[in-house]
Amino acid sequence: MLREALPKIITSTVPGPKAQAIMDRRAASIPNAIKCGYPCVIARGEGAMFEDVDGNIFLDWIGGVGVLNIGYSNPELIEAAKAQCDKYFHAMQNIVVHEGFIELAEKMNEIVPVKGDKKKTMFANSGAEADENAVKIAKSATGRPNIIVFSGAFHGRTVMTMAMTAKKSYSVGMGPFPDGVYRTEFPYLYRKPAGLTDDEAIQYYIDKLEEVFVEATPAEYVAAIVFEPVQGEGGFVPAPIEWVKAVRAICDKYGILMVCDEVQSGWARSGRMFASQYFAEAGCAPDIMTTAKSIAGGLPLSAITASQEIMDKVAPGTIGGTYNGNAVAVAAALKVVEIMKRDDYPGKALAIADKCMAKFNEWKDKYEVVGDVRGVGSMMGVEFVKTKAGKEANADVVNKIVAGAAQKGLLLESAGTYGNVIRFLCPLCVTDAQLDAGLEIFEACIKENI
User: Fold this and answer.
1) What is the dotted CATH code of the domain comprising 77-342?
2) In CATH terms, is domain 2-60+345-448 a member of 3.30.1390.20?
3) pLDDT tens-digit map of 408-447
4) Exposed e or buried b for every residue in 315-327, given b needs 16+ CB within 10 A?
5) d(Cα 216, Cα 258) in Å, to the nearest integer?
6) Rounded to the nearest 5 degrees, what angle is found at the Cα of 336, between the Cα atoms of 335 and 342?
7) Which of 4, 338, 389, 446 is 20 to 30 A away from residue 301, measured at CA?
């Protein structure tokens, strides 16, 4: 069975001949700006594995960039989608109510850790749409025009979310961007100012946030402070809990809404259903939370959840969309919630993290190029440097490791502002044997490139 298989390359080169022919067709028919950096053309996938059109078997540690936490082609998910397809594909939310839409909203209101006794949820189609709608909701609820975001942030590729995203290679030539987006430093403790302890560094980053109110926008004009509990494209940098507590206190002091972007960190990846549960447990839950990626196991869907008080302040007609809460995607999402709760996917994430972090930390001690290892649950990053002392970003070795691993049947992906972090987003249904095989390939590629 493919879901139990191990990586196996049977062609003399990757891509094989069939995959190469299809990739040539891709190059002729798809814009060059939409890149595919891997030599793979999928034929079928199960669990954490997929087989390409030439019969090569790959272990996927990217998981659709966090979309496949529940794995490829989960049989129960397939049956749920099929059952819905037999009834109807779509019911536009402003025209016809479908019960699945309401049931999923009720479940989201039950499990999403935002402030408020009564909550409401709206649906969209992508993470970027969710983040943009969160900003619209915050502005409408507060009557304020501005937001604060952070260095290292990635929030999407709509015009608003390109403005919110830090890395400008995602928005080259796309301006002008919306006004009222102000940026300050995210607490990246591995690269904190020299000479500071972690506690001193956290205070430094809090002070930097407070400076925005003096140098960029008065606090009374700020609708929301938006951040990822664990930065994704920024290099899998976790937000320290003491910093989050301080952000919560700042928001409460000035009447600002705290928005957590859990597009990538959500759905059991962190060892909780949502990383914001750690914040809620520490008394600093967000006001608004966005999620997407693994919400529907691979079908397009996203969600924005906030208190009833916040949601009911939104001006009619300003949020919504034709495909939001599509019936088939909602049916899949309901099954995802059921399976993740029943099979303890957060527990799976923690068990995987224990095993991987132990190995990654071994590498940190063993290899000069491994500078830092970090993460929350199974959202883990390994940062590569030229020297431990200098911490110079080493994107070159990352590119070689990623390319070499693909040739051996393991898909890895880079991240980070300077492309020097390898991220772990493997489906959480990965087997122990597959995990061992992946770690072996990963380390072999480190050895080959140092």
Assistant:
1) 3.40.640.10
2) no
3) 999 999 999 999 999 999 999 999 999 999 999 999 999 9
4) eeeebeeeebbbb
5) 18
6) 85
7) 4
